């Protein structure tokens, strides 16, 4: 199969890479999208033709170099192609989270001064129309799916196909303008602007250049030997740097095919049909998949459950060693082979991961137990560590050097150092240019020598040389007795249990740790049905006595595990509350990438935190919530406060 010419001469922009791919293997699949149950394919030649037509259409609409264009909607080939076209005309794409509410988009679009918007469907169009009076720079909007839009005012509203047609019929003047603008692109030209998740404040616009994206894509494709024959499933938010690197940067560099599912509801089916060879998912996705597996096994027959438990126990001991090519006895290999035929293979096929050659997880720390589960099946799942400002990659795990509690070694070309206070710093070809319109934050984050402060605390292990991230530097603190407080470390262990969806641990400056817990409604609801326990709402199920006792057992098991780490033994959870509502991005408690906003949660539920520390046995609370239609309301509850057994630290110190 043809491979792209990896020489960097003139490969200084994503449009240039698209042209190279169309010339090298124009008939090969560049994109696929499932629509009405049928996979539609875009070849590289077709992708280039559509990108050129759309770029010319944008010129006809009056787009200028330096303009910002918001792109919002689910993962679709036309939206990826539109981002390349936007770069062709010298403008900058600004992808948005498709589940963001209008108010969130208002800040971002006003901040960057977006003049054009490319929207996926009526839902996204309506969000922009709701806030357009507050966007002084807004001029034109283009939509892909016209259903429901027939009676809208189309003076500033255009269909994607009409803009394409306008471009195809454009004159020589527009084509000359396109050639000039595309020809002026270089390594320093802006490639994309992505906004941070805003964990601690307003999102910041991260400006990334062509050099940032292309050099990162080149290095990391070489690191994992990504080929034009690989397949990836594009289902993560287009506004996230991970999707931009995997589905745009690396895809353009290596020429592999990007597959877009039909919808979130068909994701698991589409994943099985595609069988990606290169797969990325944040920890939450792997947690959800594992939860679903455990639910199904609880519902299975006695023999099937025994068979699963028997071979999974064996896999936990030898699976990862076999995957890494380490020495394993002949008898153990035969037993693992039988497990592959009866358990591991069918399970991987059900998950859609049978063909995965390279798998990654990142975004936040994954529980070592969850990580080991997938590797024991023979799935080459690895961890990487990065951030938007690094064009994703800071460290990653080489094949055969994979550890559940580390994030690997520095990616080739990346330098990493640890400051005196334990904070991780890096500099690399992927280091961002600046925060848009925010020179103060740029200077605070990136020093004149190019070193970037990650905000994470970590250290390099002496025996492996791998980086181990403890927690966010701002969250790592001391308890009142001087012992280390690292909440994310505890939270990740708690989330290994299928019954626990989310956990938030408090304890900085206190004599003990306490926790909020969200149950996983799917897992706990399934358990309730099997045990004939009736419930009418999340709140009722979360407060059920047996549910509270089950969560207590999980926490006490985690406490035993934490007690074995002398450095972090003080983080054992003494008391906890199972919250009466799920933490939600719409309520400001999580970011759009589902990162916990610990400070906001602590302030919002300060009455609950106080009750956890004052010895109360229960607490009454009222909480404002946002419903799916945007309305706000209040829910109230009497919450039981549970005590958990902890391992005496005096005994730990004496060991």
Q: Kindly estimate the percentage of residues that lie in beta strands according to DSSP.
A: 15-25%
Uncertain stretches: 1-8
Radius of gyration, whole Å: 26 Å
Number of domains: 3
Query: How many helical stretches?
Result: 22
Portion of residues in helices?
A: 25-40%
Instruction: Round the mean pLDDT to the nearest integer and report it.
Output: 91
N-to-C CA distance? 60 Å
What is CATH's topology name of the largest domain?
Answer: Rossmann fold
Instruction: Find the structural class using helix and strand composition.
Output: alpha/beta
Quaternary organisation: single chain
Spatial shape: globular
Give me the side-by-side strand order of the main sheet.
4-3-5-6-7
Question: In the CATH classification, which architecture of the largest domain applies?
Answer: 3-Layer(aba) Sandwich
- Give the class-level CATH name of the largest domain: Alpha Beta
Biggest sheet details: 5 strands, parallel
How would you name the CATH homologous superfamily of the largest domain? ANL, N-terminal domain
Overall strand count: 28
Short description:
With 655 residues, this protein is α/β, with parallel strands linked by helices. The protein is built from 22 helices and 28 strands. Strands 4-3-5-6-7 form a five-stranded parallel beta sheet, sandwiched between helices. A five-stranded mixed beta sheet has the order 12-13-14-15-16. The chain has a five-stranded mixed beta sheet with strand order 24-25-26-28-27, with helices on both faces.
């Amino acid at each position: 199969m043809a491979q792209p010419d990896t020489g960097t001469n003139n490969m200084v922009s994503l449009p240039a890479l698209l042209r190279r791919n169309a010339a090298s293997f124009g008939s090969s699949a560049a994109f696929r999208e499932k629509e009405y149950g049928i996979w539609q394919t875009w070849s590289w030649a077709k992708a280039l033709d559509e990108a050129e037509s759309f770029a010319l259409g944008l010129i006809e609409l009056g787009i200028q170099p330096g303009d910002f264009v918001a792109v919002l909607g689910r993962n679709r080939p036309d939206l990826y192609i539109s981002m390349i076209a936007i770069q062709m005309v010298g403008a900058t794409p600004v992808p948005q989270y498709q589940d963001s509410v209008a108010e969130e988009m208002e800040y971002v679009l006003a901040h960057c001064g977006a003049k054009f918007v490319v929207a996926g469907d009526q839902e996204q169009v309506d969000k922009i129309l709701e806030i357009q009076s507050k966007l002084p720079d807004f001029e034109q909007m283009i939509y892909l799916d016209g259903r429901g839009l027939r009676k809208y005012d189309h003076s500033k509203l255009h269909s994607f196909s009409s803009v394409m047609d306008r471009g195809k019929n454009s004159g020589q003047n527009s084509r000359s303008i396109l050639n000039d603008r595309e020809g002026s692109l270089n390594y320093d030209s802006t490639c994309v602007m992505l906004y941070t998740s805003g964990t601690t404040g307003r999102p910041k616009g991260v400006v990334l250049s062509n050099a940032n994206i292309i050099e990162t894509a080149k290095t990391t494709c070489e690191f994992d030997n990504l080929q034009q024959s690989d397949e990836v499933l594009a289902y993560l938010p287009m506004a996230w740097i991970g999707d931009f690197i995997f589905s745009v940067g690396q895809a353009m560099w290596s020429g592999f095919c990007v597959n877009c599912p039909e919808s979130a509801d068909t994701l698991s089916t589409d994943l099985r049909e595609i069988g990606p060879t290169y797969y990325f998912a944040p920890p939450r996705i792997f947690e959800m998949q594992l939860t679903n597996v455990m639910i199904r096994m609880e519902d299975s027959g006695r023999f099937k459950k025994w068979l699963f438990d028997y071979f999974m126990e064996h896999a936990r001991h030898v699976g990862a060693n076999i995957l890494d090519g380490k020495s394993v006895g002949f008898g153990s290999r035969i037993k693992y082979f039988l497990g592959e035929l009866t358990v591991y293979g069918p399970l991987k096929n059900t998950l859609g991961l049978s063909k995965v050659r390279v798998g990654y997880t990142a975004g936040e720390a994954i529980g070592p137990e969850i990580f080991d589960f997938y590797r024991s099946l023979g799935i080459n799942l690895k961890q990487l560590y990065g951030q938007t400002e690094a064009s994703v990659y800071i460290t990653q795990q080489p094949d055969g050097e994979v550890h559940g509690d580390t994030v690997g070694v520095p990616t080739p070309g990346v330098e990493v150092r640890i400051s005196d206070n334990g904070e991780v710093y890096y500099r690399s070809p992927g280091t961002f240019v600046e925060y848009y319109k925010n020179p103060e934050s740029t200077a605070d984050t990136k020093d004149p020598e190019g070193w970037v402060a990650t905000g994470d605390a970590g250290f390099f292990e002496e025996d492996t040389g791998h980086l181990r991230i403890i927690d966010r530097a701002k969250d790592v603190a001391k308890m009142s007795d001087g012992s280390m407080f690292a909440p994310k470390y505890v939270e990740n262990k708690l989330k290994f249990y299928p019954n626990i969806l989310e956990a938030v641990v408090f304890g900085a400056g206190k004599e003990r740790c306490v926790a909020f817990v969200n149950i996983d409604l799917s897992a706990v609801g399934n358990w309730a049905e099997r045990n004939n326990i009736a419930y009418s709402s999340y709140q009722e199920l979360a407060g059920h006595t047996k549910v509270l006792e089950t969560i207590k057992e999980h926490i006490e098991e985690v406490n035993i595990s934490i007690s074995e780490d002398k450095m972090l033994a003080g983080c054992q959870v003494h008391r906890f509350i199972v919250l009466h509502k799920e933490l939600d991005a719409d309520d400001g408690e999580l970011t759009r990438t589902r990162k916990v906003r610990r400070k906001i949660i602590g302030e919002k539920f300060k009455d609950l935190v106080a009750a956890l520390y004052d010895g109360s046995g229960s607490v009454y609370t009222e909480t404002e919530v946002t419903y799916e239609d945007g309305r706000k309301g209040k829910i109230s509850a009497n919450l039981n406060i549970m005590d958990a057994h902890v391992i005496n630290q005096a005994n730990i110190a004496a060991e």
